[in-house]
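Re-running DUF397 domain-containing protein to confirm reproducibility after the cluster update. Everything else is unchanged from the original entry.
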Amino acid sequence: MNHQATEPHWFKSSYSSGEGGECVEVCLAPDAVQVRDSKRAMGPVLSVDANAWSAFVEQAARG
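Result of re-run:
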């Protein structure tokens, strides 16, 4: 068997301008969502339960 470790896939919002402003990156894991500061890729990572993340996104979409 060949078990290769894969790097996490981090992505930014499509609303991010890419001009170095304030932005977060998100990585989807099997049972959590990870969030980090895009300007500090090697900095701390916040891991949030997938259900809690969904509730947060729904609430944010409502304004």
